[in-house]
Amino acid sequence: MTTQPILRVEGLTRRFGGLTAVNNLDFSVQKGELLGLIGPNGAGKTTSFNLLMGLIKPSSGEVILDGERITGLKPHRIAQQGMVKTFQNVALFPEMTVLDNVLTGGLLRRSLAEAREFARENLAKVGMAHIAEKRAADLTFPEKALVEMARALSTQPRIVLLDEVMAALNHAEMDQILDLIRKLRSEEGLTFIVIEHHMRAIMSLCERILVLSFGQKIAEGTPQEISRNPDVITAYLGNDMDAGAHA
Ligand SMILES: Nc1ncnc2c1ncn2[C@@H]1O[C@H](COP(=O)(O)OP(=O)(O)OP(=O)(O)O)[C@@H](O)[C@H]1O
Ligand SMILES: [Mg+2]
Questions:
Q1: What are the two backbone dihedrals, phi and then psi, of residue 182, each rounded to the nearest 5 degrees?
Q2: Which of 14, 95, 142, 214 fits as disulfide partner to 22, beta carbons 3.0 to 4.6 Å?
């Protein structure tokens, strides 16, 4: 049985002056899929996520979430429709507690009291209930990553966009996040698109990977197909794919 994709992107393009950061991007994602999005620094990965979430406007192209066109909607409307993203290099409120940070996600659909309760549930789900009262500024990198996940879950998403949540983590810490993503997919049917420079993580997690280079999709396939694709290898020349180096 073929089903309608949960997300469909058609001809998505964004120019910044003379630079085309995302160039005529087409792809779709099935419900429950774990899709990887990779490419060298500056390839247009974060810009693609920002376009999907309505944080910036496309120069052209369409984004269709569960059959509904969401192109040009405001980010909070898109979040209400069930898509959420984490931010690269950010973005908890440092002076707020973990609980209050996670709670902000829940206010999208709930009263303050209900959002607080739901925040506690989601912190427990990611194994971080014990740090609810800690100040976000005092968290370790793996704690931050898990709290970001809990905050994303508090918006009650159907599809989650993760922008380098595993940067700065060691292998064991990364495995913890990977297991959590797998669990959320299998137990709650969540769909993920994951931007990650750590090749080991992306190759072990994702069933399918899209590769961007200079804003264009240059390859799409299974991890095996991607890792032996000559265009991908050329795009990464100078970058060490295995080390997952991030300049
Ligand atoms: N607001 C902006 N104004 C001008 N140029 C921008 C803007 N945002 C991104 N760019 C440019 O668009 C290109 C794509 O950037 P983007 O951040 O999407 O890359 P990325 O694939 O996420 O890279 P990285 O792996 O380093 O995070 C880069 O050349 C970047 O400098
Ligand atoms: Mg980026």
A1: -60, -40
A2: 14
